[in-house]
UniProtKB/TrEMBL annotation:
GO terms for molecular function: DNA-binding transcription factor activity; transcription cis-regulatory region binding. The keyword DNA-binding applies. This is TetR/AcrR family transcriptional regulator. Pfam families: TetR_C_24, TetR_N. The lineage of its organism: Bacteria, Bacillati, Actinomycetota, Actinomycetes, Micrococcales. Coiled coil: none annotated. It comes from the Bacteria. Keywords: DNA-binding. Residues 35-95 form the HTH tetR-type domain. Residues 58-77 bind DNA.
Amino acid sequence: MLSTVPGTAPLSESAVLAAIAPEGGRADGGAGDASDTAVRIMLAAADAFAARGFPATTTRDIASRAGLSPAGVYVHFASKEVLLFELSRRGHARARDLLVAAARDADSPTAALRAIVGGFSRWHAEHHQLGRIVQFEFRHLSDEHQAEVLDLRKEIDHVVADVLSAGVATGEFAVDDVRTTALALLSMAIDVARWYSPGSRRTPEAIEAAYGELAVRLVRA
């Protein structure tokens, strides 16, 4: 848990996640609106990584966006790679929880797959900035941090694979290679973060409906 203000209770992991990837996407208020300093630094890092890319971003860039000195960043994070890891870890955890909830609340494999792929696609539209960072800056993580994030990715893969297997068992889906199909469906949803931009004629809600239905059509028996 993160705590940066003396005398205050530390933020819970759920509170940090809600600040970094709030439901419906981040408002345009910017990193300076976050009350917790560490969260403000992470939001500033997300803005900087999205604008400049990880290699070109400096700690000074992040500090400036957060309204701090570079030394103020190092009080909370040892390096910009650690910042990338914290964003990536939490972004993946948020996405995993979304998929788990969608699968749990559905009343059939078909409904579950529609909700999972549709919701995952919408998440990558509403959080396109964070999505681009956690999905496409992955190679800049250390080996140790890559391994931890890969574990989260495997959990996400398993959620989709389990739904596909359940659909095959009930006769709803015709899938020969469950793992590869799960990867293809997730990749389709993840790619939304690459091309989506606010103001696009395709709204997050429309993307959710279209991608959810497309996923079902691709595997329907």
